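Working notes for the structural subgroup meeting. M.R. asked for a predicted model of this chain before we commit to crystallization trials. I am recording the input and output together here so anyone reviewing the notebook later can reproduce the run.

Input as submitted:
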Amino acid sequence: MDCVKVSEPQPSAEAQLRAAAPHALVATARRLLAERVGAQAVTLLLADYGLAVLQPVTHLPHTDAPVSAHEGPAGSAFLTQKPVLEVLHDPAGHQAHLPITVRGDRLGVLSVHLPPGAVDPHTVLQLGDFATALGHEVTTAGRDADLYLQARRTRRMTLAAEMQWQLLPGRGCAREEYVIGAHLEPAYAIGGDTFDWSTSADHLVLAITDGMGQGIDAALLAGLTTGALRNARRAGISLADQACLADQAVYAQYGGKAYASTLLLRFELATGVVHAVDAGSPQLFQQRGGRTERVELEAQMPLGMFEETQYAEQTFQVEPGDRLIAVSTGVHDTRSATGDLFGERVLRQILGATRSAPPHETARAVIAGLFEHYGSKELLSDAAVVCLDWNGRRG
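Returned structure, recorded in C-alpha cell form:
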C-alpha cells in the first residue's frame, strides 16, 4: 500500500511574526506581505513620544524622513484609526495605511504599497488584522530590543524622561466599558508627572501623579510612588488603604521633604460608581451632555507629606456618554511668559471644543493649548492629561 505524504500546513502570519527575532519584525512583515498580497514595499511608522510625527523604522541610527502624525494619508490613518488608501501614479498602485493599535494604545501606522488591482475590501481587512498582530509583536519585542524605542525618538531623551516612559502602562487603553487616552509633556524631558492604570473583570483603577521637584529627583519620587501604589493595589486592599500604604512608603524614604500629589480613581465597571481619593493637586473634570463641570473632591494631603496620614474615599457616578479629564498641576497652574495663568477658563474652552474628538486627541489638544498659552516649544513644568470616555457595560 502506497503511503500518501501529507504536507504540513503553512504557519499563520501571526505565528511567523511571533517566531521572528525582535529586530527582524519589519523584514519578516515585508516578506509575508510580499508573499500573501503582492506588497512591493512595507514601512513601519511609529509615533514619536511627542505625538508630532510618525518615524519610519529602518536600520538605526539612520532612518527615513518622518511624516506628520496629524496630516497626510498616514497621519489621517493614525488620527482616525481607520485604513486610508492612497492612489499612486509613479509607480502605479495603491498605498494602504493601516493604524497599529494594541488594546487601545496607538503605536503608529503600517504603510503597504500594493500593485494595481490588488486592493479590495477583503485585502484591506487582512492588512488591518496583520497590522494589529504586528503591533502586538512590536510591543513584546520592546522588552528585548531597543530598536523600536529608539525609532520613536526625534531627539535625545533625558534620563528622567527615560525612567518615566518606562514606568507608564502605555498612552491608551480600550475596553467595552471605557476608552482612555493620555499624554505627557515635555515628552523628552518629563520628570515628575505620570499616570497608571490597571483593569480587571470588574474594576478599573486609574492614578495620575504629580511628583514634587524636577528632573531625576522628581522621576525617582514618581517611580517610588507608582511602585508603592501598584504594590498596595495588588494586595487587593481598598483605594483608601492603597493611598495610606503609598503615603507611608514615600514618607519613609523622604521624611516629608518630598511628596507626590496623586488622584486615585476606582471604577466599578458594572455600575459606573467611582471611588476617589484626592491626595493633592491633580484636578478632575466631567463632561456630560453639553456641560463641563469640575468634580469637587475633598482635598487631602499629598502622599508622603506627613507620617501615617489617613485617607478617606468619596464616591460619584458616571453614566454612559460621560467624559472625565484629569490634569496635573503643570496644566491648570501653568503661567505664560507674561504671567497669565492657563486656568480653568481656557481649559474648559479646549475641552468644549474637543468634546467630539477621541480621548487621545483631546489629551493632545489640551497639551497643544498649553504650549500655545506658554508661548514656547518646551514647558518648564511637567504636564499630564488623562481623558476617559465612559461607555458603561451593555446588558
